[in-house]
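A note from the maintainers: we've had questions about how concatenated examples are separated. There is no special marker in the raw files; a new sequence line simply starts the next protein. For clarity in this README we add a label.
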Amino acid sequence: MERHRAFESCVWLALLLPVTLNAAKLEPTTTKAWEEYAAAATMGMEQRLNPGNSFLWVDEVPERLRKVRSGEIVVSSVGLQNPKRVPAGLIHDWLGAAFIAHFTISDVLAVVRDYARYKDLYRPTVMDSKVIASSEAKDRFSMLLNTKSSFLKTVLDTESEANYVHVDNQRAYSISRTTRIQEIEQYGGPDQRILNEGEGIGLIWRLLSITRYAERDGGVYIEFEVIGLSRDIPNSLRWLVEPIVRHASRRSLLTSLQRTESAVHARGESTAASYRESRARQDLPAAHSSR
């Protein structure tokens, strides 16, 4: 899932000041640091499958599990330093967890993998969304991400690939990463222009998300870890900007989980209503024939 919506709106808040609006360029050293971090995060997910390790982040701390099981959405920074500085860039890493009672993994995945509806579920951050290709284990999709503000009029044109793994009947996980991000300057105006990859203001260079699903306790635990790469922030502004980034990141991930949970409930209600209507139509002829 492009659960990437949990990150799209956070970094640009840190870049609203005019002093930061000069063009940036994604450097090879920045890309290298990102690939190393992404590889380590992916390996960390795979290590959760090893005997003796916790599949879910919430299971690592009893109080964390208690909060989520009771209906609270818990969001946390990954690591003490967040964002993490890399050459000419910043890596943002956040993790959130929720429990959706009375539903199954299939119910949740039906919402998570409905990419065409992202533009409805996660508006205004997701302006448009489309399915490119879909199979049992892999999806490709595109999104237009809104980063417009009073200072900026930039939209991100993105494509992503999501890979799904069903560990067993009760557990699954997915790893989703952007395969293309291009900035569109002055979106919707006469001077609209799409830039080459790695060029522009550098609001978001790369995105990676790791999502875990576990069906137990009468519902589904869902965990989103969203990792993003952006341009660096000047030293003179870090004291002001980094708290804004952290607050916005936390809030964005919280909102993402809330909307996902609401969408699962709404789909369940719609499915139940359709079932009742279908049964009513099936019972109608029998009712008439008995008269």
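[label: protein 2]
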Amino acid sequence: MRIALLADIHGNLPALEAVVADIGHRGADHVVNLGDSLSGPLLPQETAHFLRARDWLQLAGNHERQLLTLPPGKRGPSDQFTFARLTGTELDWLRSLPATARLAPQVFLCHGSPRSDAEYFLETVENGGVRLATPDELESRRSGETSELIACGHSHVARTVRTAHGQWIVNPGSVGLPAFDDTAPEPHVVENGSPDARYAIVEDGPGGWRTELISVPYDHHAMAALATRHGRPDWASALLSGYL
């Protein structure tokens, strides 16, 4: 079984198209989208149309939940921009997406961690940034999930960890946003240092799971210019350089 893992597209359709083209060259039995697909000052409706036409297994991330449940005054600027550009058709599609799923008995899919769509699984916020989670932190966040492979997103950091239990935990990184800041659980910044789109391919073979963390170039200058036109210089900086 060969699976392409995508996460955190954030309305960046050109980045998504570049990733899909790369998957076409490499091949995959399944493509999985781990959520946070639309939110951001880029192309949310166009990205929704692209994703709705795919026969992929797709999850809702924390931003999908926020788009559907938060009132206008509580939405952040990225969610508010996105909500204003979606129709009832796109919102109904978001409502249909599960928060977690099982692709096969040995493969569990989530956006954040098995217990929360808003929790980094493989990273811990510390000193204004993120560090690799400790084995004890991973054990707590695993929340009893025993699948051989757990795929997650949310942190935008491409990373593979193999636990003491022999489980693989894979975060493919972000397709569409290589750097961001947040205030929860405390103020911090995540920066990947590259403007490229990220995804992963995992494959179950005779010797166990194999993982490729893949970086794909695309026309990030055009998306940075679009973010600037939409009044988001923070996104423009992230898209241009992978830094804020």
